[in-house]
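To the wet lab folks,

You asked to see what we're planning to order before we commit. Fair enough. Below is the target structure as tokens, and below that is the sequence we designed to fit it. If anything looks off to you, flag it before the synthesis order goes out.
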């Protein structure tokens, strides 16, 4: 080697060292990469693999990865114009590329979305709304009748094995207490071997009673239903409200997620009908470019997992709906009667005869709905849902002089006149496309719920006193020793974000050991055994009887179905994906963002930790089922990390200031009595205990109490 190449190499190595050690970007990159490598090492235990790696080879590997990353990062930086993002304020909220094909007035669509999100009339019982589980910092702070016994449990072969025994409280309608947590109790929280008790129950959100849908009653907020005995959620044979199988995540900042729901089933592509995007080949809506000539069309809106998520709960028999209700029928509730056949799309026949928010007061200073408020009377003045839809959406999606007739077998026909035979359902175009309006309007409203004015964000913007000295030490732990940044990456603080998936691909390989494939942003950290809840390891259920295609996109790629069901070619992995290799999907859950985490207890997908201190203890001991490395944090370091997490709170969320203000809401909060006795309302259901969440205007108020406070 000549002298010039040697000198060049020395200069390069010196420059690289200076960059890594002296520049803030270099130190951050070095710390992030080392942390990521450490995190990936322990994850191989997930596959029960044992291997040894020498310190020398590890050092060489780290150096090589850093070298490649720095060169690649500098190359990319040289090609990108403009300053890099500083805080979450500089990250654009993802939106569909073709939104303008559907929405003509975004402001009007946000108004429609906020009304639908908070309107209790949407629920089958006329009492539950989307907001019923998302009214406190976008999540749920209720603590009575909030236990699910573990109904998502499966056997090792994947067959259903629901647990119906209530380990926490012994029965439904139990009032949770601080001493019930954590559900996995240890005598020494730093030592995972000191087990005292282990409970697989889930702390979640109460929804609907067990009822069968019969019909909507035009002009009535309450559907006509038949009460059916509930073998699980009852006290002394009297039905109580169902509780969901997973803890309720916040909707705040959920707009940044590439997929939604804990298991990722709410697809990035919205098909206008249900959560499953291109996975559902039968999903279609109706378009009438000429009012006399409507036609069935398939639609696809990217960056719309919030819309996909929004259309799930209204038809879920344990959340908002009676069993068998459809989207078009919900629209009929707000005119026309239907016979309740459950077809692929239906939530439109309920709302058009009802005043929006007709059971709830809207604050006159509401940041979105205030100008339309009937304050001090309930509802919106001079507004109907059909008018709100017409204001927001292009006419080809709601204006036609033809009806869509659906027979008992699901066959659809365009007709000129109503045919009120018992064998058919008939819908206006607006009713038929109600799921499209519902999903997109709620997505646009939720896309305004962005918490980006936290002390952490202000610190990133250059305010060095925005975080306390203790919080700044916690921030260093977050990105270093504690390894939090391994899953909670980027300014969104989640690797499940649109930007993370765009950068890293929808699937990727673990960089060590067998290099197993995984879905980007989904991890099994050992909160519970995978058989308690398979999560991403489950299927979409579209085949019926609990069968369907894998939720895991890596497994779809193995089956050769990635392009067909997701609309794009799978990422090219190195080495190429093997159809028989192990995919890390069983028990894997979407990594949540962390802003406002101080306000959103209980924590994890099972709601099994009540405080941030308990969460930090969980990570410090290496989790509860051997899938994480111990962190060996000192008591002081634990408090520093908790302090930093509290520095992720946006006070606009805490005090319900715009855009987090809202209409009045009445939410069921368990039932009078306890877990041994409830009061029958005369129909076989327990009477509800109701709490009021008062209407709040743009200037906010004192906020709602945190969980168990």
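Sequence we intend to order:
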């Amino acid at each position: 080697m000549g002298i010039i190449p040697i000198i060049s190499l020395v200069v390069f190595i010196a420059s690289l060292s200076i960059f890594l050690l002296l520049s803030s970007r270099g130190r951050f990159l070095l710390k992030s990469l080392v942390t990521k490598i450490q995190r990936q090492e322990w994850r191989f235990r997930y596959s029960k693999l044992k291997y040894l790696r020498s310190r020398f080879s590890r050092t060489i590997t780290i150096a090589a990865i850093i070298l490649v990353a720095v060169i690649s990062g500098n190359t990319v930086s040289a090609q990108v114009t403009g300053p890099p993002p500083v805080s979450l304020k500089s990250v654009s909220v993802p939106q569909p590329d073709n939104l303008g094909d559907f929405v003509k007035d975004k402001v009007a669509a946000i108004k429609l979305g906020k009304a639908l999100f908070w309107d209790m009339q949407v629920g089958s019982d006329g009492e539950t709304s989307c907001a019923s589980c998302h009214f406190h910092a976008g999540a749920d702070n209720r603590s009575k009748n909030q236990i699910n016994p573990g109904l998502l449990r499966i056997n090792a072969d994947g067959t259903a094995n629901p647990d119906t025994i209530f380990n926490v409280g012994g029965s439904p309608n139990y009032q949770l207490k601080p001493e019930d947590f954590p559900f996995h109790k240890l005598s020494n929280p730093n030592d995972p071997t000191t087990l005292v008790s282990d409970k697989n129950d889930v702390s979640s959100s109460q929804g609907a009673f067990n009822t069968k849908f019969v019909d909507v009653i035009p002009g009535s907020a309450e559907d006509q239903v038949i009460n059916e005995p509930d073998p699980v959620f009852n006290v002394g044979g009297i039905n109580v409200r169902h509780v969901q199988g997973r803890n309720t995540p916040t909707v705040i900042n959920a707009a940044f997620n590439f997929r939604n729901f804990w298991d990722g089933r709410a697809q990035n592509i919205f098909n206008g009908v249900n959560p499953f995007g291109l996975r559902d080949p039968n999903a279609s809506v109706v378009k009438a470019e000429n009012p006399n000539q409507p036609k069935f069309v398939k639609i696809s809106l990217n960056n719309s997992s919030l819309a996909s998520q929004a259309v799930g709960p209204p038809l879920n028999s344990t959340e908002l709906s009676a069993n068998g209700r459809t989207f078009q029928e919900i629209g009929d509730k707000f005119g026309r009667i239907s016979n309740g056949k459950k077809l692929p799309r239906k939530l439109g026949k309920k709302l058009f005869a009802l005043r929006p928010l007709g059971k709830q007061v809207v604050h006159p200073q509401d940041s979105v709905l205030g100008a339309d408020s009937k304050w001090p009377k309930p509802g919106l003045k001079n507004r109907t849902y059909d008018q709100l839809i017409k204001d927001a959406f292009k006419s080809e999606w709601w204006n036609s002089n033809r009806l869509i007739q659906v027979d008992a077998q699901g066959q659809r026909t365009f007709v000129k006149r109503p045919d009120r035979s018992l064998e058919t359902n008939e819908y206006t175009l607006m009713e038929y496309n109600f799921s499209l309006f519902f999903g997109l309007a709620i997505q646009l409203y939720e896309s305004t719920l962005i918490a980006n004015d936290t002390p952490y964000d202000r610190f990133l913007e250059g305010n060095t006193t925005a975080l306390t000295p203790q919080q700044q030490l916690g921030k260093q732990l977050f990105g270093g020793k504690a390894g939090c940044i391994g899953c909670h990456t980027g300014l969104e603080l989640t690797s499940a974000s649109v930007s993370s998936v765009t950068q890293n691909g929808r699937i990727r390989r673990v960089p060590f050991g067998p290099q197993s494939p995984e879905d980007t942003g989904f991890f099994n950290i050992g909160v519970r055994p995978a058989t308690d809840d398979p999560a991403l390891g489950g299927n979409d259920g579209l085949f019926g009887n609990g069968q369907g295609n894998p939720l895991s996109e890596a497994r779809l790629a193995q089956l050769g179905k990635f392009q067909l069901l997701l609309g794009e070619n799978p990422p090219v992995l190195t080495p190429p994906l093997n159809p028989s290799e192990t995919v890390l999907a069983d028990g894997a859950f979407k990594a949540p963002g962390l802003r406002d985490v101080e306000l959103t207890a209980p924590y994890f997908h099972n709601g099994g930790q009540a405080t941030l201190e308990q969460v930090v203890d969980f990570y410090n001991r290496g989790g509860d089922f051997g899938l994480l490395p111990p962190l060996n944090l000192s008591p002081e370091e634990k408090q520093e990390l908790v302090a930093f997490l509290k520095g992720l709170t946006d006070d606009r969320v805490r005090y319900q200031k715009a855009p987090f203000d809202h209409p009045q809401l009445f939410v069921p909060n368990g039932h009078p009595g306890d877990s041994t006795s409830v009061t029958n309302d005369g129909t076989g259901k327990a009477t509800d205990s109701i709490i009021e969440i008062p209407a709040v205007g743009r200037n906010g108020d004192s906020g709602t109490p945190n969980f168990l406070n």
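Structural context that might help your review: Residues 21 and 27 are 6 Å apart (CA to CA). The mean pLDDT is 86.

Thanks,
Computational group
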